[in-house]
Every structure is written in structure tokens, then in C-alpha cells.
Amino acid sequence: MPISAPTTPKGARSATTANGNPYPPFDLCQLVKGAGATYVARGSVLQPHQLMDEIGKALTTPAFSFVEVLSPCPTQYGRRNRLDSPAATMDEIRDHCSDWVEVGQAGSCAADMLLLGEYGDG
Predict the structure, then answer these.
(1) Cβ proximity of 104 and 121 under 8 Å
(2) In 3D, which of 46, 62, 65, 67 has the Cα closest to residue 117?
(3) What is the DSSP code string of 14-48?
(4) Per residue in 31-77, pLDDT tens?
(5) CB–CB of 49/33 below 8 Å?
(6) Cα(44)–Cα(96) distance, integer angstroms
(7) Residue-level pLDDT at 66
(8) Distance between CA atoms of 23 and 6, rounded to whole angstroms?
(9) What's the CA gap between 9 and 39, in Å, rounded?
(10) ∠ at Cα 89 (107, 93), nearest 5°?
């Protein structure tokens, strides 16, 4: 039985899944939202200004806040998935993320897309 990190994208290769992860990734934002966090967001280092806004909101929100940050790893993820450069690894992230929107407005996104932005009540 292959074992991978719970957030490894389906089909992506890792140290423990040389033929690709056979399982869909676990959505940490949904877990934390379900656990009662008052502020939940997902951002990417590819959009630093929006990410800084989300982190700022998290820091100023009373109680428990959570921001998941997507960041490429060219030495492990990039190399194992045959991404030739850090730029190719960032393109891979860009290809699997929706535009920066509130999740309630992202109903038309493909099921395997990671939704970036604030996880509100939408």
C-alpha cells in the first residue's frame, strides 16, 4: 500500500509513491473549518500580495485562525515529478489552483482544483 503525505496531489510522485499518489489529497481547510476555526484561508506564494492579506486577516482575527500556504519544493516534488526548474514547479501549482476567489464564488472550478482564498460561509 503506497503511503504519501495527506496533501500530495493525486497522481503526483513522492518519496513513498514512486508511481504516483493513488489517493485524492486531504483538504486541510475544510477540516479546520469543520473544527470551528474562526478564519480559514488558502494561499500560494505565487500570489504574495493576496497571501499577505490573508495572513494579516488571520493575525487580527480573534480565536483560532488557519492559513494553508502552497509553496513549491523543487528539490523533492519538482524533481520526482520531472519538473525541470523552479519555474516549472510554480507553473504546476498555478495549473492546479483556481483564481483568488472566495470559495462560495468558485462553483465552476474542476473537482481537482485547489481553491485559493478565504473559506467563508459561502
Answers:
(1) yes
(2) 67
(3) BTTBTT---SPPP-HHHHHHHTT-SEEEEEETTSH
(4) 888 899 999 988 888 888 988 999 999 999 998 999 988 776 666 77
(5) no
(6) 11
(7) 92
(8) 9
(9) 24
(10) 10
46 Cβ contact list (under 8 Å, min separation 6): 70, 90, 93, 94, 97
- Long-range interactions of 25-32: CB distance < 8 A, separation 24+: 28/66, 28/68, 29/66, 29/68, 29/119, 30/119, 32/66
pTM reported for the whole predicted model: 0.71
Amino acid sitting at position 55: I
Facing residues of 18 across strands? none
Cell numbers at residue 10, please? 493525486
CA angle 38, 44, 50 (to 5 degrees): 70
CA 121/CA 72 separation, integer angstroms: 29
